[in-house]
Amino acid sequence: MNNLDKHSLHHYWMPFTGNRDFLEAPRIISRAKGIYLYDIDGNAILDGSSGLFCTPIGHCREEISHAVSQQLNTLDYVAPFQSAHPLAFQFATALTQLLPDPINHVFFSNSGSESIETAIKIAYAYHYANGEGQRIRFASRERAYHGVNMGGVSLSGMVKNRQAYGPGLPGIAHMRHTWQAEQRFHRGQPGSGAERANDLERIALTYGPDTIAACIVEPIAGSTGCLVPPQGYLERLREICDTYGILLIFDEVITGFGRTGKAFAAETFGVTPDIMTMAKALTNGAQPMGATAVSDQIHATIFNAAPEKAIELFHGYTYSAHPAACAAGLACLEIYQNENLFNKVAALSDYFLDAIYSLQDIDTVLDIRGFGLFAGFDIKPASQPGARGLALQKYLFHHGLNIKMTGDSGLIAPPFIIQEQEIDQLVTILRQALEQV
Ligand code: PLP
Fold first, then answer.
1. I need a surface site. Which of 99, 141, 237, 315 has the fewest CB within 10 A?
2. Among the three residues 338, 372, 405, which one is the final residue of a domain in this structure?
3. Is the C-beta atom of 113 inside 6 A of ligand 1?
4. Is residue 190's pLDDT more than 70?
5. For 362-371, what is each residue's pLDDT tens digit?
6. Which of 113, 158, 250 most suits a substitution to test ligand 1, by most atoms within 8 Å of the C-beta?
7. Are residues 210 and 288 in the same domain?
C-alpha cells in the first residue's frame, strides 16, 4: 500500500462504492497527466470516462492549475452575498457567449446536484413571480440521474438511488425512458421513439397542465448508459412545454462543453430549453463548481416581481462563484476555444464510434449506443445484477483502463485530447476484458 497504512483506510466513507469490497483490494490513484491516471504503484491507467466526465481537456493542465493558484494567492475567498469579485462576472459573461440565446444569466453553485436544486427552485420561483404559484409539479423521466440532493433524488429514475430515502418531493411524475429493444446497436439518434415525448402531455392532462412547473431531462441520459434521444423527441418535448406553459430544463451536466461535438447538446440537437444545468467539464474537474443558466424571460420575471432594492431570489451557497473555481472555468473556456476542442470531438466521433461498435460481436455485449465522444454498452448480467459490471471495472483497472460502470452498463467518454491510437488502445483493453469477464 506504499505509504498508506491499510488499517487507516476505514475512516473515509467512499461515495457510491462498496466500501468493504473496495478495501479488500484498494484501487488508489496518486497522480494524473493528460489522458492517464497513475496508481499508487506507478501503473498507467487510461482514463476512458474522463474521471466522471469531468476532464475533457486532460488531467493536470498547467494553464488551469496556474490560474487557480494565482487566484488563490490574490483573492482566495469573498462572501458571494452582497459582495462579489471580477471573475464571477467575467465567467458568467463568457459562459453566456457559449450558451444558446436567450439563455443569458448564470447562477453558480458547487456541483451538478446543486445546479439541479437551483434549477428546481428557480422554476418554482419563476411561476410564483408570474402569478402561477400553483405550478408545483415536475415531469422527469425513468432512468434519469439528476444528482443526489433531495430534489434531484426525487427526479431520479434510478431505483437504488431513491428507495432508501423516503418519498422525496411531492408532485413528481416520470415519463418513460427512451430506450426500446428495436434500437439495439443503433448509432446516433434512433429513428423511432419520439412518440414517448407524448408522455409529458399525458402527465399534463392527467394532473392539469397549469399545475406543471417544468419538465427536466438529460438531452442524452448519461449515467444510465448513454441513451441518445430519438429523432424528434426533444423537439416534441419543447412543443408540449410551449403549448402548456411548462418550463423545459436540460440537465447538461454531462453533455455540456463539447461532449456531443458542439458546446451544448441543446445546440447539437437544435432545441433550446428555458433552463440549463452544468458542472463537471465547466472547470475540467479541477475545482468543484456547478452552474444553472436561465433565459432572459425567467430572469426578468423573477427580478420584476421583487421590489427594486430587495433580494430577488432567496437562494445561494457560501461558495457560489468561488474565485478559484471561476479562475479554473475561465482557463478552461480559453483552452476549449484555443484548441478548437468541440470541433475536434465532432471530427473524432466517427473514429471513436467505429472503434466502440466493433465490440458488438462479443457474446456478452447486449447493446451499444453512442453519440459524439460518448458511448454506452450493456453486458449480460450475472446472477446478481451489477456483479459482472463491477468485475469488469476491476479487471479493466488492473489492465490499464478506467471507465464508469453503472450496474451492468459501461460508459466511455474519453478526454477530447485523446488520439486515434489511444482509442485503439482503449478498445483493445476493453475487448480483452469483455471476452474474459
Ligand atoms: N446531473 C447529471 C446529468 C449528472 O450526470 C450528474 C453527475 O453525474 C449530476 C447531475 C450530479 O452532479 P454532481 O455529482 O456534481 O453533484
1. 315
2. 338
3. yes
4. yes
5. 999 999 999 9
6. 113
7. yes
> Percent of the chain scored above 70 by pLDDT?
99
Q: Which of 366, 293, 290, 269 shows the shortest CA–CA distance to 104?
A: 293
Query: CB within 8 A of 338, min separation 6: which ones?
Result: none
Q: Which of 362, 47, 54, 403 is nearest to 225 (CA)?
A: 403
* Overall number of domains in the chain: 2
How far, in Å, from the CA of 340 to the mean position of ligand 1? 25
The answer to whether position 322 is within a domain reads yes
Residue 1 lies in a domain: no
To test the pocket of ligand 1, the residue of 141, 143, 145 to mutate (highest count of ligand atoms within 8 Å of its CB) is 145
* Pair (53, 91) in one structural domain: no
Atom nearest to 116 CA in ligand 1? 10
Classify burial at 385, counting beta carbons within 10 Å of its beta carbon; exposed 0-12, middle 13-18, buried 19 or more.
exposed
Percent of residues in the chain assigned helix, strand, coil, to nearest 5: 45, 15, 40
Distance in Å, CA 308 to ligand 1 centroid: 35
Which residue owns the Cα nearest ligand 1 atom 13? 112
pTM: 0.98
- What's the grid cell of residue 227? 441513451
Range of the domain at 237: 65-338
Distance 147 CA to ligand 1 centre (A): 5
pLDDT at 1 over 60: no
pLDDT tens per residue across span 306-360 = 999 999 999 999 999 999 999 999 999 999 999 999 999 999 999 999 999 999 9
